[in-house]
Specification:
Helices cover 39% and strands 18% of the residues. The chain has 399 residues and is an alpha/beta fold. The strands form four sheets. Strands 4-12-11-10-7-5-6 form a seven-stranded mixed sheet, with helices on both faces. A four-stranded mixed sheet has the order 1-2-3-15. Strand 8 and strand 9 form a beta hairpin. Helix 4 packs parallel to helix 11 and helix 13 crosses helix 14. The protein binds pyridoxal-5'-phosphate. The site of pyridoxal-5'-phosphate has 15 residues, from helix 5.
Length: 399
């Protein structure tokens, strides 16, 4: 058989991104191996998706068991989706769920639901969606327009109307801007792609109050922060508030594609028969895997383990900082951490990530100036230390 090479990417794939130079072929826990057998420590976790590591035995078992039973049927519900929905209702603020295949689709559903709810309850004037600068909500035209990064949304116009972007963590600006025409306010409890920027507690609580005052819906995009990532099942649980709508994806399937929109009863009712839909969403294969992932993640020991791992991670990063003065600060919560780069590394996040693949560790960026870490929630302390040691080698090699 002809050997597959990285050059094929240049030849056959739409050039929407620049993948790493190596091709991984196998993964186990927080380790990966490429075609040449070289080992990598994975501190990216498939962009916060592989919450239980690569090829977790119980997820593989759930996949294989369901794969030989039933993949997809039309016009029927199935057992895995019903069990998963019930488990998620019991564990959260939500009364009902809509399942889909990705974060963008979950947010698309959330924004459409908010618009339909506001139309039915208040009228067509109440259609404005307030979002925040640097936010990220997906790449469909609606979600990328709600997202606060012009670079991603420009060049595809005309874009959907009645969307506003305000500075994040600025309650006074929101208070000035929100009105009875506001249909929903959407935010990430920690902005992920935007630089690992946590929403302040007072901001989260203030947004909730302003939404209540103006009868606007609060949508939390927990695609990246949810499913145990911050040490709670969902990040809103740190802030003594509940949203009206919440979206989940990334780690929901432990690495298998699935997304969900969660809503409280009255809001969910605005999606009556025929108003929204999906072909693959909620299929038994995806739901069987997500059901197992949910059962493993929604455990006190796993969630408190995330808090412990955050401490190990911060310790390793602080030691690196003491030796190299490479960061101005470290932000985030649980296992969604961002390290802002100091001179002479400032603006070199991408170069560091490339150098790090050569020394055997996989990292993420969040913009040009932040290294982002979103490893498996099960990563061990030796793996964290070895990963940071390999990052140190990469930093030294950059000089
Ligand atoms: C990744 C992400 C999305 C988009 O999810 P996809 O599965 O890539 O469509 C949306 N919102 C947030 C906060 C994300 O991190």
């Amino acid at each position: 058989m002809e050997a597959v090479t990285r050059e094929w990417f240049e030849q056959y794939l739409v050039p929407t991104y620049q993948p790493a130079e190596f091709i991984p072929v196998r993964g186990e826990g927080s380790r990966l191996w490429d075609q040449a057998g070289k080992e990598y420590i994975d501190l990216a976790g498939g962009v916060a998706t592989n919450a239980l590591g690569h090829c977790h035995p119980q997820l593989v078992e759930a996949l294989i068991a369901q794969a030989s039973k039933l993949w997809l049927v039309s016009k029927c519900t199935n057992e895995p989706i019903l069990r998963l929905a019930r488990a998620m209702v019991k564990a959260t603020f939500a009364d009902r769920l809509f399942f889909c295949n990705s974060g963008a689709e979950a947010n698309e559903a959330a924004f459409k639901l908010a618009r339909r709810y506001s139309l039915e309850h208040f009228g067509p004037h109440k259609s404005e969606i307030i979002s925040f600068e640097r936010s990220f909500h997906g790449r469909s035209l609606f979600t990328v327009s709600v997202g606060g990064n012009q670079a991603y949304s420009s060049g595809f116009g005309p874009t959907p109307a009645q969307i506003r972007h305000l500075p994040f963590n600025d309650l006074a600006r929101l208070e000035q801007s929100i009105s009875n025409n506001t249909c929903a306010v959407v935010l990430e409890p920690i902005q992920g792609e935007g630089g690992v920027i946590p929403a302040e507690r007072e901001f989260m609580q203030g947004v909730r109050q302003l939404c209540d005052r103006h009868q606007a819906l609060l949508i939390l995009d927990e695609v990246q922060t949810g499913m145990g990532r911050t040490g709670k099942l969902f990040a809103y649980m740190h802030h003594d508030i509940t949203p009206d709508i919440l979206t989940s994806a990334k780690a929901l399937g432990g690495g298998f594609p699935i997304g969900a929109m969660l809503a409280r009863e009255e809001v969910a009712q605005a999606f009556g028969e025929g108003t929204h839909g999906t072909t693959f969403g909620g299929n038994p294969l995806a739901c069987a895997i997500a059901e197992q992932a949910f059962a493993l993640i929604n455990q006190p020991a796993l969630l408190s383990g995330v808090v412990q791992r955050e401490q190990w991670f911060r310790l390793a990063l602080e030691q690196l900082q003491q030796r190299h003065h490479c960061f101005t600060r470290i932000r985030g919560q649980g296992l969604l951490l961002g390290a802002e780069l100091a001179p002479p590394y400032q603006g070199k996040a991408r170069a560091i990530v490339r150098a790090a693949t050569r020394t055997g560790v996989i990292l993420l960026t969040a913009g040009d100036n932040v290294l982002r870490f979103a490893p498996a929630l099960t990563i061990s302390q030796p793996e964290i230390e070895a990963g940071i040691a390999r990052l140190e080698q990469a930093l030294i090699g950059l000089h």
